[in-house]
């Protein structure tokens, strides 16, 4: 009897092991509570028994898809999504069913970068988020889903994550990116569809860590550690491998990016690195040139490399010309002199949303860009600046214009008086009788207050190339 019992147990264990091996396994991002991009062919993938057939049924149309696994047991397929709605469910079956439910169809965005993107609604130690409690009071919204990628590093590309989709409420939102969440909330309110927002951000990181090593070919202004060196978060590729690679292929509408402070040491190539990073990400996603909206860093009393900050401003601005379907948010008016993490993340989220609502979703009438320097004309002892993106003119909201400087042929800049005259700004100084060049907010700690009438700020600029 004992022998028969042992045989029976052995058979049951073998059967259970076979079933477990046969079960469909999905990546963390494809799970209950997720949001899928509407009106798209979204990619689903996972593992199952080797050389087996997996059927996938979507409840929004009851369509059944069939896919064969590889000899390694992997599979991948595309399913068509309808207009926004839900909740729905998706049933996976390789002989054993797996049901993913509470699935919404809507808009999906990825937000990435360093600490200003990572900064949660609850704030950092002694560093608040403006109006955080009011934001949290408004957080209960089942139509917003949050997916926060854990902070990790890897020398090799990873496929697994320890993360899950969460419904938006005060408890989940307080831990989530203040910029990313508020952007999602604005879209959800204005578009009236479910919104999924994916956070993959890590404070104090270089852009090189978010890039593939292949996309860094041709650049030589960063450190490459020895293979035997202990891994660090700013090693090239390590954040891409651990925090981006596992979600590549999950259909998104676009990406938000807030990073740059850590690259103030090597600003001259930053625009080209941004372009290389975005190009590589888009190629790997294989979903066209999705929009890439990003934030220009804010003024601050930087403790080192302060003289490089204006050069980083310029590089971030140049990136718009290098990256198709991109746009930059200016934050020169909402920085902080006491922290590198400005508390007003609401205005940043709104300015990102302006780009998305007009440029991506076609909401005409919403202005998304501030005054852009166009030309300089010297008239006697005055410099007259002209701008694009000012259909209704300029304003400083009854305040005196600040952070303008003017120089003559000696290249010495002096604080200047600046006055709005029609659609121009007239700049002068008693110290400069024959002006040659003008700079605006072109220092690390220089705030700006020049806006178009629609309320968007001009970015820092200079008319010289000195």
UniProtKB/TrEMBL annotation:
Protein name: Sialate O-acetylesterase
Organism placement in taxonomy: Bacteria, Pseudomonadati, Bacteroidota, Sphingobacteriia, Sphingobacteriales
Annotated signal sequence range: 1-22
Keywords from the named record: Hydrolase, Signal
Organism whose genome encodes this protein: Pedobacter panaciterrae
Gene3D superfamilies associated with the record: Immunoglobulins, SGNH hydrolase
UniProt entry tagged with the keyword Hydrolase: yes
Ranges of residues in domain Sialate O-acetylesterase: 107-335
The keyword Magnesium belongs to this UniProt entry's keyword annotation: no
A Pfam family assignment: SASA
């Amino acid at each position: 009897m004992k022998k028969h019992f042992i045989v029976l147990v052995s058979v049951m264990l073998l059967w259970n092991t076979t079933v477990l091996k046969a079960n469909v396994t999905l990546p963390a991002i494809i799970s209950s509570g997720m949001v899928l991009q509407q009106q798209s062919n979204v990619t689903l993938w996972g593992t199952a028994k080797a050389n087996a057939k997996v059927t996938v049924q979507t409840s929004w149309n009851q369509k059944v898809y069939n896919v064969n696994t590889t000899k390694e047991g992997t599979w991948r397929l595309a399913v068509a999504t309808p207009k926004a709605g839900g909740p729905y469910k998706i049933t996976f079956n390789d002989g054993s069913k797996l049901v993913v439910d509470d699935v919404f169809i809507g808009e999906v965005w990825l937000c990435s970068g360093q600490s200003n993107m990572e900064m949660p609604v609850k704030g950092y130690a002694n560093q608040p988020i403006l109006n955080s409690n009011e934001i949290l009071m408004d957080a209960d919204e089942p139509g917003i889903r949050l997916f926060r990628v854990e902070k990790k590093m890897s020398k090799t590309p990873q496929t697994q994550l320890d993360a899950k989709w969460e419904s938006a409420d005060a408890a989940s939102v307080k831990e989530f990116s203040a910029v990313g969440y508020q952007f999602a909330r604005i879209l959800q309110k204005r578009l009236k569809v479910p919104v999924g927002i994916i956070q993959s951000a890590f404070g104090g990181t270089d852009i090189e860590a978010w890039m593939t090593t292949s996309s860094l070919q041709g650049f030589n202004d960063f450190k490459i550690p020895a293979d035997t060196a202990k891994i660090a978060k700013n090693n090239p590729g390590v954040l891409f491998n651990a925090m981006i690679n596992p979600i590549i292929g999950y259909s998104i509408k676009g990406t938000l990016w807030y990073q740059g402070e850590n690259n103030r040491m090597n600003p001259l190539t930053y625009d080209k690195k941004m372009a290389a990073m975005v190009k590589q990400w888009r190629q790997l996603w294989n979903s066209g040139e999705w929009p890439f909206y990003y934030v220009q860093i804010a003024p601050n009393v930087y403790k080192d490399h302060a003289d490089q900050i204006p050069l980083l401003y310029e590089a971030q601005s140049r990136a718009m010309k290098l990256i198709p379907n991109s746009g930059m948010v200016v934050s020169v008016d909402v920085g902080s002199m006491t922290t590198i993490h400005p508390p007003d993340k609401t205005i940043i989220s709104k300015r990102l949303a302006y780009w998305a609502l007009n440029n991506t979703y076609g909401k005409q009438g919403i202005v998304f860009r501030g005054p852009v320097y166009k030309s300089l004309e010297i008239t006697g002892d005055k410099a007259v600046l002209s701008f694009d993106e000012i259909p209704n003119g300029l304003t400083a909201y009854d305040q005196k214009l600040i952070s303008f400087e003017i120089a003559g042929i000696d290249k010495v800049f002096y604080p200047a008086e600046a006055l709005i005259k029609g659609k121009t700004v007239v700049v002068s100084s008693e110290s400069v009788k024959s002006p040659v060049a003008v700079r605006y907010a072109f220092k690390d700690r220089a705030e700006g207050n020049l806006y178009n009438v629609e309320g968007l700020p001009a970015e820092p600029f200079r008319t010289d190339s000195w």
